[in-house]
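Example 3.2
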Amino acid sequence: MDQPEIWTTDWLLRDSKNIHLEKLAVGSEERRLRRKDFIWPICNYLPVDPAQAPIRAWDRGISRQDRMVSLPDFFTIAGGLPCVTQKARELLERFDIGDSLFFEVLFSVNRDFDVAGGPYFFFNMTCQKSGTVLPDQSPLRKMESGRWQPDSYGAGSHEGYTVNASSQEGCDIWGDPVLIKTVFLSPSLASAIRDARLTGRRLFPCKLNANPV
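Structure, written as tokens:
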């Protein structure tokens, strides 16, 4: 079998079981983050104003045992906000990530305890390639908004995607604006993630269509 040239991952479906978000705060005044300033653009692969990036996330419900467990290299919180460890950030920065940004965040309990294993970062992925996925040839469901989502959120959530072969050009990690909770990867980045044994994600090869209608 030929090596696939585009990969995808279920990273954005893998919410951390150790962080149940209560509050995101920005700046020293600890004001509550407004959804439109951070969550909405990140989930739509749009740039965030650094002044609106949260510096701390609070959770009053983490058990003492969970506080001592380091989070995986790739994880999400709050239903899809992508986060990475320092190790994952350093690997991603070796590749073409376009104008994507990283914002360091502290995960704290009762404002005075940081979760082990940091530093951690929100990953504001801004590279988009419209027309990457071919919805009529992929296991997707159409939402009321007109966008698409994975047909299943289980073990095989991202298996069987068919993508436009022309999407191989450009950055090594990107999203398709019509598809939520999905990241696409170049073969070199996918290989590097496997070789580094970064945790918290599964990789799936995509089927290439060189002549999409």
